[in-house]
Amino acid sequence: MTARQRKFAEYYVESGNATQSAVKAGYSKKFAHTNASKLLNVEEVKAYVQELTEKGQQRRLMLLSAAIMIFVAQLDLNL
User: Fold this and answer.
1) Which residue of 9, 15, 19, 23 has the fewest CB atoms within a 10 Å radius of its CB?
2) What is the pTM of this model?
3) What is the per-residue pLDDT across 39-62, written as a single tens digit (0 to 9) for each?
4) DSSP label at 8?
């Protein structure tokens, strides 16, 4: 995977907008929509997007768990 493809995937996971992600990654504005569509079909890019998405989900779950534990601890203090 090229550095530009990697940046595209990272921007895409962050924003969810493939065309804007292509432009931010350095692809031509004129062909951003076409390039974005093609990039989403490159196996390495798809796999990296999936990996980043899973890591983000795991991070959100860990943060939610921590927030729940803090909330429960505060409830215990108030009883």
Assistant:
1) 15
2) 0.75
3) 999 999 999 999 999 988 888 888
4) H
